Amino acid sequence: MSEPEIMSRQTQKRLDEAAVLRTLNAFAVDVITIPSVEDLFWYVAQNVVGRLNFVDCVIYRADDVGASLTQVAALGAKNPYDRSILNPLRIDFGQGVTGQVAQSGKPVIVGDLLKQQNYIPDMSPARSEICVPLLIKGRVVGVIDSEHPDPDAFGQAELDILTTVAAMTGAKLELLAEAERSHQRYRDLAASHVQLSQETASRKALEAKLFAARKLEAIGRLTGRFAHDFNNLLTVISGNLDFLAADTRRPDAQASLKDAQSAAGRGAQLIRDMLAFSQRTRLSPELADLNEIVTNVCTHAKPLFPADITLTQDLADHIGVINVDIKETENALRNLLSNAREAMPNGGHLRIATEMLRHNFTDNQDLVAPLMPGLYVCVSVQDDGAGIPDASLHQIFDPFYTSKPVGRGAGLGLSMVLGFMQQSGGSVSVLSKLHQGSRFRLYFPAIIAPDGIETNDLLTIDQ
Ligand SMILES: Nc1ncnc2c1ncn2[C@@H]1O[C@H](COP(=O)(O)OP(=O)(O)OP(=O)(O)O)[C@@H](O)[C@H]1O
Ligand SMILES: [Mg+2]
């Protein structure tokens, strides 16, 4: 070899080494900003190995359990369309040159593949191969593999270069895995924060319901005792008034006695409502058809409604039999109708409907008092009147709560309804939107279900 020839070979070698260093330097800088594992693999295959005079490169990724490798990025015949792999091969650990490197975690150079029985030819059969592992903390997470059509194409220099590329790639893979773990931790934290907020909100709602229930119970006990004692006084007053009315003939005295008797009558009604609220009414339950009760109440109520209020009845065909005090049920319904009428001073629409409902623990949102899961016969009274402001919704069942002017309402209607419904083993639900209307629903336990309904849902109630 002539001297200038030797000189130019040395110069070329230095130039090649400088190009390798430049490529590795650029990789070291670029790698910082590569955002994902997929981008990293493609960057390494095409921009690193591709620029380092390797004619082909395929990167394999190991599965999580370290059992097999799959081709994920490539340079050369395997990726004719930019970032896609043609027929990505899956190779078991231990199988072929790549599988052997994955299993041992050590790089391999094969000088002549024709002598290598272990060789797995892919798209274009080659003569020599170099393969290095990709490691994170000593665990094989993939391999970088390159083949060449000539024998003995790879030596120590190529091994050094690929090992350096693999080390930088492995370090970046570790960083990306850590970033993914902290993202996941952040997502978990955000999810548990949402769950915690929801739990706190529902706990607060439950506490508010419990507080309201306890308050009603306490007022109920007080009202019950008061109503009972006062009832005894009223009985004495009414009895004496009746006795005097039968005896006196003076017309002015008769008028005064009539006033006194009617006041005592109103007092007696108040006391009845208070006793109902405190669940101390003596009920006379009997088997009944709610549709019949509703029809009867509506027939009597209709003529009392102004003409600008329309009333529709929507009664379900097959509803179960209930066991209730019919008079008190009618009274409860009349209370709801009268409230609805008063909520529609400028007219509107009133709908009364009956239906059978299956209640379970999850759907007690609108219930005023808790209800056992089971089958219920329900009547709902729905108006499109004034509605109830959210702030007052929790008060409307309190005894003596009224939004009506003094002398117009005692505020006992709904408390009577709730007390009676609870005493009958049922409950009440309310849905209301200001200026849009309200729907009150009474739940009665179904004692005998209509045909086709599972009877094991029926409740046994001690009246
Ligand atoms: N359908 C309804 N639409 C709008 N508000 C209603 C309705 N029903 C009840 N309310 C509100 O609930 C309050 C309490 O009702 P409740 O029947 O207990 O007492 P009241 O009607 O005021 O008096 P009472 O029934 O003793 O004559 C009412 O004053 C009203 O503010
Ligand atoms: Mg009322």
How would you portray this structure in words?
The chain is built from 9 helices and 13 strands. By secondary structure, the protein is α+β, with helices and mostly antiparallel strands. The strands form 3 sheets. A 6-stranded antiparallel sheet has the order 3-2-1-6-5-4. Strands 8-10-11-13-12 form a 5-stranded mixed sheet. It has a two-stranded antiparallel ribbon with strand order 7-9. The longest helix has 92 residues, at 156-247. It is rod-shaped. The site of adenosine-5'-triphosphate (ATP) has 22 residues, from helix 7 and helix 9.
In CATH terms, what is the architecture of the largest domain?
Answer: 2-Layer Sandwich
Task: Name the CATH homologous superfamily of the largest domain.
Answer: Histidine kinase-like ATPase, C-terminal domain
Looking across the biggest beta sheet, what order are the strands in?
Answer: 3-2-1-6-5-4
Tally of DSSP helical segments: 9
User: Considering DSSP H and I runs of 4 or more, what fraction of the residues is helical?
Assistant: 40-55%
Ligands, deduplicated: adenosine-5'-triphosphate, magnesium ion
Q: What spatial form do the alpha-carbon principal axes imply? A: rod-shaped
> Which structural class do the helices and strands define?
alpha+beta
Task: List the domain count as a whole number.
Answer: 3
What is the rounded distance between the termini? Answer: 117 Å
Radius of gyration from the alpha-carbon trace, in angstroms? 44 Å
Just give the CATH class of the largest domain.
Alpha Beta
Indicate the CATH topology of the largest domain: Heat Shock Protein 90
What is the string of helix and strand elements? HHEEEHEEEHHEHEEHEEHHEE
Number of strands: 13
Proportion of β residues?
A: 15-25%
Low-confidence stretches: none
